[in-house]
Design goal:
The protein has 429 residues and is mostly helical. Helix content is 79%, strand content 1%. It has a single domain, classed as Up-down Bundle (Na+/H+ antiporter like fold). The termini are far apart.
Length: 429
């Protein structure tokens, strides 16, 4: 296949991806009350083998070829068409995670540190414990983990996967409803921030720990910690130069945006090179950037292109790895239901009880539990990492994607239901 043929196929791939994501988003927002992220998750599954592959298998395989190419030497390489799409999806993911870090409000965490810490601890310990215990129980039951993955590594990974909260989805839901400055809204945002920071640190430890060589693991963990410390304590004062440049120019100029992208790509490369993951470096870099006109300008100049054009490719790439047909026995469906139940009990119920202990009333506590229970985009990220790093099989990947979709779909209607009860309760007092 020539470069020009690859280019033409890429254009068609992008067209199909963007059209499908827009149609599903319009329908999902208008009739189901779901956010863009949830709708694009569903669009990814629709374009994968689970639906598109059933309706038009030949065309789906031609458009998104998953079969590797066999070389004359007998070696197999990934299809170059999918490699290009993967690269585009990863670039979008890196920029998006940088923007997520850029929006992380550290002052918000300080305002509700005690309550947020309580909710966050519950949102990490309960699902992590249940997820890790489940991994030990399921380790020998089915073909869920790749050969060579030790039971403790499987337990750490599944525990970290269960601990994720969809902070990028949680924040817009509260902002859209004007609840970000309320008591429980602030608590949810602060707890979600702490939760995801902790979960990403756990994931970094997991990825470093599965290395076959102890020196490689030590290098990954040490390199990751060094990167975080350097970025937050040395990089943060240096990055203030971007604020001064923005004030001088009156806005984020092309020169400033280019410099930020250079630093971003280097940091993503660096953390991936030391053995953590590229998006971890992007997220940490975002948290260290100034929070003023510079941050606002960066979001205005990069957010729409990232979320409307680059990021949907990641959802579709995840959908192509989601094969619901792999969950094809009663035993596997029982395990899937078990994973969903454990996810809800550990994250949703655990955070709800912790919020109640932090002083919120029951309806608001239940709302926090529903929001913290949503996994969303970040769950897909950690699942793709597990699949790429050879930790989980496509079967477990599919089960976890089903869990992520269900818990994310639940969040918006449950939030509406509980907020109605909150308003009713307040009207009686």
């Amino acid at each position: 296949m020539s470069n020009f043929d690859l280019f033409l196929r890429l254009l068609l791939q992008l067209t199909v991806i963007l059209v499908t994501c827009r149609i599903v988003t319009i329908v999902g927002r208008r009739y189901l009350g779901q956010t863009d992220v949830v709708c694009e998750m569903m669009a990814g599954v629709i374009l994968g083998p689970s639906l598109f592959g059933l309706i038009a298998p030949d065309f789906q395989q031609w458009l998104f070829p998953k079969v590797p190419i066999l070389l004359a030497t007998g070696a197999k390489i990934p299809n170059p068409s999918m490699s290009i799409l993967f690269a585009i999806s990863q670039i979008g993911l890196i920029i998006y995670m940088f923007l997520v870090g850029l929006e992380l409000d550290t002052d918000l965490i300080k305002q509700r540190l005690n309550g947020a810490s309580l909710v966050s601890i519950a949102g990490i310990l309960a699902p992590f414990s249940l997820g890790a215990s489940s991994a030990i129980f399921l380790y020998d039951k089915s073909d869920l983990f790749k050969p060579g993955v030790t039971p403790w590594a499987a337990a750490l990974y599944l525990g970290a996967s269960m601990s994720i909260t969809a902070f990028p989805m949680l924040a817009p839901m509260l902002y859209e409803r004007g609840l970000s400055k309320t008591s429980f809204g602030t608590l949810a945002l602060a707890a979600g921030s702490i939760d995801d920071i902790t979960a990403w640190c756990l994931l970094a430890i997991v990825l470093a720990s599965i290395k076959a060589n102890i020196s490689i693991a030590a290098f990954a963990i040490g390199g990751g910690i060094s990167y975080v410390l350097f970025t937050l304590f040395i990089g943060r004062p240096v990055f203030k130069i971007f604020s001064r440049m923005t004030k001088r120019d009156g806005d984020v100029s092309v020169q400033i945006l280019a410099l930020v992208l250079i630093v971003l790509m280097f940091c993503a490369w660096l953390t991936d090179t030391v053995g953590i993951y590229a998006i971890f470096g992007a997220f940490v870099l975002g948290t260290a950037m100034p929070r003023d006109e510079f941050a606002l300008g960066i979001r205005q100049h990069s957010e729409f292109l990232t979320t409307a054009f680059l990021l949907p490719n990641f959802f579709v790439f995840s959908g192509l790895n989601t094969q619901i047909g792999l969950v094809n026995t009663p035993a596997l469906w029982i395990i899937t239901v078990l994973i969903v139940v454990i996810a809800i009990l550990g994250k949703g119920i655990g955070c709800m009880l912790a919020a109640r202990l932090a002083g919120e009333n029951w309806p608001e506590s239940a709302t926090i539990g529903a929001l913290m229970n949503a996994r969303g985009l970040l769950e897909l990220i950690i699942l793709n990492i597990g699949l790429e790093q050879g930790i989980i099989t496509p079967t477990l990947f599919t089960m976890m994607v089903i869990m992520a979709i269900i818990t994310t779909l639940m969040a918006s209607p449950l939030m509406t239901l509980f907020l109605q009860r909150t308003s009713h309760a307040k009207s009686l007092t």
